[in-house]
Write a structure and sequence with these properties.
Shape: globular
Strand order of the largest sheet: 1-7-6-5-4-3-2
Strand content: over 45%
Radius of gyration: 15 Å
Number of strands: 7
Structural class: alpha+beta
Oligomer: single chain
């Protein structure tokens, strides 16, 4: 028996020393993205692929330290170079659907570098709810993105 989906959202903002173009490039390059994006930095990633274009897909498979299998399947809906990335993704653990999300990433150049605004709209499925963990994992990924792009 399924329960109704629970809906929520959150918004995160970051200021970078790097330009919007450099931050965008860190989202667009698969090797760079794999270095910073994982919300579970201690996991082993046996599968990752990314086709960064509208209609392109990203697949991510990993195993958490407790042995749980994590699957993320993403499709890029809209990409405006150096300015915007919109994607939808579904997350599952051990084959059980957890959530479906729509994410909008907006980049803007500023006099000191750039800003990023990330808005995630979530539908939690079948009683799953981890908003604080999801937000914290996304924040940790953005912190690693900052280290990646502001290091030079």
């Amino acid at each position: 028996m399924t329960t109704p989906a629970a809906h929520t959202s959150f918004v995160l903002e970051r200021s970078f020393k790097a330009s919007a173009a450099r931050v965008f490039a860190a989202w667009a390059d698969p090797a760079t993205k794999l270095r910073w994006n994982d919300c579970h930095a201690q996991t082993h990633v046996p599968e990752f692929s990314m086709d960064f274009r509208p209609g392109g897909h990203e697949t991510y498979r990993s195993r958490l330290p407790d042995g749980t299998r994590l699957a993320v399947d993403k499709v890029f809906l809209d990409i405006a170079e150096n300015a915007r990335i919109v994607f939808a993704y579904a997350m599952a653990t051990d084959g059980r659907a957890l959530s479906a999300s729509l994410v909008t990433v907006e980049l803007t150049d500023t006099p000191g570098g750039s800003t990023l605004k990330l808005t995630e709209q979530l539908a939690y499925l079948d009683g799953h709810m981890d908003i604080e963990q999801r937000r914290r994992g996304t924040e940790e990924g953005l912190d690693r993105l900052m280290l990646e792009v502001d290091a030079i």
